[in-house]
Amino acid sequence: MTSQTPDIPTADQIRRAPKVLLHDHLDGGLRPGTIIDLADATGYTSLPEREPDKLGIWFREAADSGSLERYLETFAHTCAVMQTREALVRVAAECAEDLAEDGVVYAEVRYAPEQHLEKGLTLEEVVEAVNEGFRLGERRARESGHRIRVGALLTAMRHAARALEIAELANRYRDNGVVGFDIAGAEAGFPPTRHLDAFEYLKRENNHFTIHAGEAFGLPSIWQALQWCGADRLGHGVRIIDDIQVAEDGTVTLGRLAAYVRDKRVPLELCPTSNLQTGAAASYAEHPIGLLRSLHFRATVNTDNRLMSGTSMSREFELLTETFGYTLDDMQWFTVNAMKSAFIPFDERLAMISDVIKPGYAELKSEWLFRQTVTTSGSVPKTP
Ligand SMILES: O=c1[nH]cnc2c1ncn2[C@H]1C[C@H](O)[C@@H](CO)O1
Ligand SMILES: [Zn+2]
């Protein structure tokens, strides 16, 4: 018998639990072996390692710098090998397969189309190749007994000046694989208000967007993303913690912005391991997700960049259960939060919650009940 505390899920249960992922970068999740294959196929000779295990370690270590700017430099290698239709189809298909294998049932995966034009693809060709890859990966996942749905978010880079063009692209493909828009890249010095025209356009089109904010830069960035730009969700948003005071006797006081975020149920796309790497949090135990969960913010758990963080959704949940003693109920809470916050239509979100997520967790919880009964009675109860 395992000595695990009842209700704390095992690693195997965490992997089998249905999970929802809202913040994952396509160019931050390649398999190391695929990067090497694609580099060979496209003549890219600047990879720092030629052996998959070593290359995986290189990405993790290079991303471990404590600075978002240095973390972002590692993407030069992944973007370099994602410049052809074939490469994009393969990377997107493998992304969907890897997530499905990890128990992710719904994912919104983002990438910046403007970073994949070096070999002559048009923005439209990039979007169509990635869509084709996601559909292929979903089909392959189904064939191997998994179920996943993947929507794309189109990202504009905040240091560049193509946000309106990318927003228009997202709007053109909104009924064809693309579910929303995002801005990413170095945060300090590049406030989201630089791209107001793109956000105002998307609002006029009744479209959805999230903004990377409150990761490398604090409250002003979150405030602008919400109150100037009108973001539906916050990419990270972890620094909202700067607007929450916890007194020695445990009394919690929320500032106006933190109160707004909680009252309005603004989804926080939290990415614990990524935050440790870029210096947004000092340790898992000190990561604000513990406090935000207990204060009932609409917190969600995400991977950000599986390659650079050497992580997966299951791994993030394992680390959280080890650190905070989270149970299957906590996992379900994060997962339902994420599904409620997805950019697909409301009825489809509800159907995922009632047909996939709740039954999945109910089944896992019944394993605990079953195991408890076996331990206490010493015999296996007969099924009725
Ligand atoms: O955590 C992040 N913060 C800001 N930008 C990021 C993060 N992770 C990835 N990016 C950037 C680098 C990628 O090339 C780009 C599009 O996915 O988004
Ligand atoms: Zn990100």
UniProtKB/TrEMBL annotation:
It is an enzyme of class 3 (hydrolase). It comes from the Bacteria. The active site is at residue 215. Binds 1 zinc ion per subunit. GO terms for cellular component: cytosol. Keywords: Hydrolase, Metal-binding, Nucleotide metabolism, Zinc. Pfam families: A_deaminase. InterPro entries: A_deaminase, A_deaminase_dom, Ado/ade_deaminase, Metal_Hydrolase. It catalyses: 2'-deoxyadenosine + H2O + H(+) = 2'-deoxyinosine + NH4(+); adenosine + H2O + H(+) = inosine + NH4(+). The record marks 236 as: Important for catalytic activity. Its EC number is 3.5.4.4. GO terms for molecular function: adenosine deaminase activity; zinc ion binding. One of its GO terms (biological process) is adenosine catabolic process. Its cofactor is Zn(2+). Belongs to the metallo-dependent hydrolases superfamily. Adenosine and AMP deaminases family. Adenosine deaminase subfamily. This is Adenosine deaminase.
